[in-house]
Design brief:
Structural class: alpha/beta
Largest sheet: 4 strands, parallel
Helix content: 40-55%
Number of helices: 17
Number of domains: 3
Radius of gyration: 26 Å
Distance between the termini: 39 Å
Length: about 475
């Protein structure tokens, strides 16, 4: 299998192995650094100030690993182009810089875990070189068929057509950035054929035997009307033969980390796994929100003060520093959202709500910068302390937009079954949305979060949000 489900979230198996391997590289690099520094290989370096050396190596490794996760290093990369090596090198350098920032803070708070300068320099250099080399080899290999799941698509209509990579005919059945390779499409009677004829296969009467003969890992059910066309006996035989069978919505959710609105129905949400969090999970989620928000507030306090001063100066020493706006929260309950003001005063003079547009003339110079690095959102930490928001969740929307969107977009109100968040899955996966179509697209990611959210997923979202801030993705 090319993916594994952990805490309701799907992870690509090759990247899990890469993460474990790179953690070992980081850990061993500290000992290589100690060897280069003292010219002898020992488990505990011969200095009194280096007691608990394995713990120091572990902290170094975890800090660098969190930096890698924060920069999205364990996701399938986009098109690499001719700057393949430079792109990898730059992202690894940025990841290590974030790890170093975390270590600086830890070393300041707990100086007893500090590594010596010599060991630290050697460890950093060795691990940096090895990881860049490992990634060059891995990213040349991960696209190979051997690392992908082979699937047979039962159906050849409009649903099935979604799986074909039409951007590159030579790779139509081996889509880029996917964890699967398509063996072929099985046409179904009374179904309009939308798939090119050369991709069609006819397995005969014994579907399970055909799958075994061609080493099919999974059958994806892609037919519109399953009541009339689903071969229950053949699919059950596949299931009993250890060949996984999955419906199209579930397959799309797993592969794309989103839920297709145009393919789902209420019964699927009712009977699927997920969509729940127990009392213990809610308690630890709330505790996590409070602790991380407090740390974030302490760390960012100097930036908050400087931002407030700059806004006050730009407005001519008058006008509000903060912007308050009514938003819709958990279970549709309204609350007052707090942000740094990034637009001119009275940006909506006529009183009617407006979407923020690209290059919006209402945005101030300071506002443009703080939006880009997301500082304008930080006052929402007070909303988190108050319990109106969480660190991670769907972005809260204005009541005027919500009432309109609920009538036009199916399942829109479902996003209000969890607390809105400062960061979110949709913000990571989809650029800034400022239209009804953008809202529709982002809702598909919000529904994925509502269905699969957990404390582990929240941690991953927060770490990967660092990449959004560093690279300025989606800001407007």
């Amino acid at each position: 299998m090319a993916t594994v489900k952990i805490f309701n979230h799907h992870f690509r198996t090759p990247f899990i192995f890469l993460l474990v391997f790179e953690f070992l590289v980081l850990f061993v690099s500290v000992y290589i650094g100690a060897y280069l520094r003292f010219e002898q290989l020992v488990w505990q370096p011969p200095q009194e100030n280096l007691m608990n050396f394995p713990l120091r190596a572990l902290i170094f490794s975890l800090a660098m690993l969190f930096g890698m996760i924060a920069m999205g290093q364990y996701q399938i990369p986009g098109p690499l182009g001719k700057y393949y090596l430079p792109a990898i090198t730059v992202r690894v350098f940025i990841s290590f810089a974030l790890g170093l920032l975390g270590l600086v803070i830890l070393y300041y708070l707990m100086p007893d875990i500090l590594l010596g300068r010599g060991i630290f320099a050697y460890s950093l250099s060795v691990s940096l070189g090895i990881i860049i080399l490992v990634r060059l080899i891995f990213l040349h290999t991960v696209d190979g068929r051997s690392l992908r799941r082979k699937i047979l698509v039962y159906g050849a209509g409009e649903l099935a057509e979604n799986l074909i990579d039409d951007t590159d005919p030579a790779r139509a059945l081996v889509p880029k950035n996917a964890s699967y390779v398509i063996h072929g499409f099985v046409p179904v009677s009374e179904d309009n054929i939308s798939v090119p004829e050369q991709y069609l296969v006819k397995p005969g009467d014994d579907l399970a035997e055909y799958c075994s003969a061609y080493e099919i890992d999974e059958v994806v059910l892609a037919i519109a009307d399953r009541r009339k066309k689903m071969p229950v006996d053949s699919l059950l035989d596949c299931k009993l033969s250890n060949i996984n069978v999955i419906d199209f919505v579930g397959f799309w959710e797993r592969e794309k980390s989103m839920i297709r609105l145009d393919m789902m129905n209420p019964s699927w949400m009712i009977f699927c796994e997920g969509c729940k969090q127990g009392t213990i999970g809610s308690f630890f989620g709330r505790l996590f929100d409070i602790l991380i928000s407090f740390v974030l507030l302490v760390v960012m306090l100097p930036f908050l003060i400087v931002t407030a001063i700059l806004i006050f100066i730009e407005s001519g020493f008058k006008g509000p520093i903060f912007y308050r706006q009514t938003r819709v929260g958990l279970n549709g309950k309204n609350f007052e959202l707090l942000k740094f003001r990034s637009m001119v005063v009275n940006a909506e003079k006529d009183g009617s709500p407006q979407w923020a547009a690209k290059n919006d003339m209402r945005i101030t110079r300071v506002g443009s910068f703080i939006r880009k690095v997301r500082i304008d959102e930080l006052p929402q930490i007070l909303n988190i302390f108050n319990g109106d928001m969480s660190l991670v969740g769907p972005r809260p929307e204005r009541p005027e937009f919500v009432s309109e969107l609920e009538q036009k977009i199916p399942f829109y109100s479902t996003r209000h079954r969890v607390k809105p968040g400062l960061a979110g899955w949709a913000q990571l996966k989809y650029p800034y949305g400022a239209s009804e179509q953008d809202t529709y697209n982002k809702l598909q990611y919000d529904l994925y979060y509502v269905k699969n959210h957990s404390l582990i997923m929240d941690v991953l979202v927060l770490l990967q949000t660092v990449e959004v801030i560093v690279l300025g993705k989606g800001a407007r």
